[in-house]
Amino acid sequence: MATAGLNIFLSLKPKVTPKGVEQNPDDEYQIYIDCSAGRQNRKKVYTGLKVYRKDWDEKRKAIKRTDSDWSPKNRVLDLFLMKSKEIAAQLLQEGVDNGRIQEWKKRVVNYIRPKQLPPPVIYDFEKAYFDVLELQGKKIKESSQQVFHSAFNKLKEYCLNNAIPLDPTFFTSDFMQGYLTFLYDKVGLTDNSANKAIRTIQTALRKLMKTEDFKSSGIIVPSEFFETIVKSRKADKVFLTLKELNSIMEYIPDNEKLKRIKDIFLFQCFTGIRYSDLSHLKPEDIKQIQIDGLFYRFIEKRQIKTQDIVKIPLIKQAENILKEYKDNLPVPSNQKYNQYLKELMEKVGINEVVRITRYQSSKAITLSFPKWKLIGTHTARHTTATIGLQLGIPAKVVQATLGHTNFKTTEIYSHDDLEHNIRAMNKGYEKLDKE
C-alpha cells in the first residue's frame, strides 16, 4: 500500500559475495526497508537485522515463530516500518517533491543507524547473564529458563530501541520508568506480566552480583533498579460450573480427535492434575490401596512444579477414562491441547459472555469474551477446586488432591459461582419458613 505516494515495504537481500562465488543458501539474509516511486526510482535501507530464508514469511513480510528471536525482531521491524511511513508523510506535508525518495532514505538512515550503534559496553552483561543461567541449568526447570530468556529479550529490545547500552550501570530510576512504559505500551503487558518480567531480571542480576567477574568489573548497580516494584493484582480466572461440566460430559464429539481431548480434559477436572504432571503420567504412577475390603486406585507422583509428592484419588469417572486408554492417556502438546480444547468448548456451547479485567498501573482494561475462548488446560484445576468444595468435599481433601501445601493457595483456585450461591442461600433460609 502506498504511503504519501511512496510504496514502502520490507524485503530480503542476500549478503554480498565476491564475484564468482555463489550465495550459500544456508546464509542469513539481510532485512531491508524498501521504498519505491515507480520501477526506476527505488531505494533500500538496511535495518541491521538478519533472518534465514526458512524463517521469513514472504506473504506477511514478517519473521516466523521458528526464529528464536522472532518477537523482538518483528517489533523492531514494525517500529522501523511505522517510522519510515511517518517520514514519507512528513515529506509530503513539507512539499518535498524533487529528490523526495533520496531525502526519505537520508532521514530513515538517520533514524535507524543510532539504534544499531549504542555506546560500547565494557562488561558483557548479556554473556554474563546467560553464563549464570547455564550454570544454574540443572537447578532451574526448562520452563523457568524460558522465562529468563523472554525477560532478557524484552530488556534487550528496549535498550536497542532507545540506543541505551545493555549495561546495569544505566539501570537508573529514569531507565526503569521508561522500561516499564515500554512493557505497557509497546509489548502490551499487564501489571502481573510486567511484575514478572522485572522480577526475573532482578533475580538474575542478584545471582550475577555474587560472581567474581562481576565483583572485579567495578560496576555499581543503581539501588533504584532493585527498588522498582510493580504491584501484582489478583487476576480474573475462569472455571466451569457444575452445569457446564455436565454439558461437556453429555456432549458426543463428531471426530476422534475431539473425543480424546474431551476425555483428557474431563480426567483433569476429576483429578485436578496439572498439565505438566499429566503429560508425564505413566502407568507405574497409578497405585492401589485396599479399604474396607475394597480396592481403590490413586495417582502417586512427584509434581514437576513443586517437586512435592501428590496423591490423587481416582473417582469412578476418572477410572473409566483411564481404563478406556489402558492407563496411557494420549496427551498432546500444551499448544495443541489448548487449541483443540477451545474448539471443543465452542461446539459444546460454553459461550457465556465473560468480562476479564487486567491492569496497567492505574489503567483498567476490561474485555468481554465468550467463555470458550478463555478455557485452557489450567481451567480444569480451578474447576476441581470450585466444584469439589460446592459438592461438600472437605477443604483439606481438595487441598491435598491439588497438591497444595496450604489452604490459602487452594482458595485462589476456588471461585464464587452465583447460581450455586443463590441456591445455597435460599436452601439455608428455608428454615425460617418452617419455624
**Quaternary status:** single chain
Kindly state the percentage of residues in helix.
40-55%
Number of helices: 17
What's the overall geometry?
globular
Strand order of the largest sheet: 1-2-3-4
Q: H/E series, N to C? A: EEEEEEHHHHHHHHHHHEEEHHEEHHHH
Mean pLDDT: 79
**Which radius of gyration do the C-alpha atoms yield?**
28 Å
Query: Structural class of the helices, strands and pairings?
Result: alpha+beta
* Total count of domains: 3
Which stretches are poorly predicted, pLDDT < 50 over at least 5 residues? 116-121
Q: Please tally the β strands and state the result.
A: 11
Q: Give the N-terminus to C-terminus distance in angstroms.
A: 78 Å
Q: What is the CATH class designation of the largest domain?
A: Mainly Alpha
What fold name stands as the CATH topology of the largest domain?
A: hpI Integrase, Chain A
Strand content: 15-25%
- Write the CATH homologous superfamily of the largest domain: Intergrase catalytic core
Q: Report the CATH architecture of the largest domain.
A: Orthogonal Bundle
Please summarize the sheet with the most strands: 4 strands, antiparallel
Give a brief rundown of this model.
The protein has 435 residues and is of the alpha+beta class.
Description:
The structure is a single chain. The protein is an alpha+beta fold and 435 residues long. It has three domains: 2-116, no CATH class; 125-227; 242-426, hpI Integrase, Chain A (Orthogonal Bundle), CATH 1.10.443. The chain contains 17 helices and eleven strands. The protein has helices spanning 70-93, 100-116, 125-135, 142-161, 173-185, 191-208, 212-217, 223-227, 242-250, 256-271, 275-278, 316-324, 334-348, 379-390, 395-402, 407-413, 418-434, and strands at 2-3, 6-14, 29-36, 42-51, 56-57, 62-63, 286-291, 294-302, 309-313, 353-360, 363-370. It has a four-stranded antiparallel beta sheet with strand order 1-2-3-4. Strand 1 (2-3) and strand 2 form a beta hairpin.
